[in-house]
């Protein structure tokens, strides 16, 4: 069974469990993770909603894909709960990037 979360904006998190019978949506991310990473992301704000996010939980790890649809260059970083965060990356308008994490859970994407 494969779990897929698609984040369309900083306010909306869609979590899905893909099964042979269909797609089930629910709330994303554990609430307790927010406090654990608040100190690490305090200097950075949540990335704007024009940065598309796709989070795919696989048996071998977590895949996070970001695409910049902002009309300008942005610098973003993936914040991981219970694991190392991704590096700060510069995304030109229209470009995308993918990260794979072996441990942890997706928390959010922030500016850096």
What does the model show?
A hairpin with a 5-residue loop joins strand 1 (2-7) and strand 2. By secondary structure, this protein is mainly beta. The termini are far apart. The chain is built from one helix and nine strands, in the order βββαββββββ. The chain is globular and about 35 Å long.
Q: Which shape, going by the Cα principal axes?
A: globular
Helix content bin: under 10%
| Lateral arrangement of strands in the main beta sheet | 3-2-1-4-5-8
**CA-CA gap between termini:** 34 Å
Sheet of most strands: 6 strands, antiparallel
Order of helices and strands: EEEHEEEEEE
Which structural category do the helix and sheet elements fall into?
Answer: mainly beta
């Amino acid at each position: 069974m494969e779990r897929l979360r698609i984040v369309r904006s900083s306010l909306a998190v869609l979590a899905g469990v893909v099964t042979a019978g269909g797609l089930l949506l629910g709330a994303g991310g554990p609430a307790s993770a927010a406090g654990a990473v608040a100190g690490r992301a305090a200097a950075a704000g949540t990335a704007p909603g024009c940065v598309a996010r796709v989070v795919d939980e696989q048996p071998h790890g977590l895949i996070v894909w970001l695409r910049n649809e902002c009309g300008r260059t942005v610098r973003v970083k993936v914040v991981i709960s219970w694991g190392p965060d991704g590096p700060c990356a510069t995304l030109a308008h229209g470009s995308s990037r993918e990260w794979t994490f072996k441990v942890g859970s997706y928390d959010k994407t922030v500016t850096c």
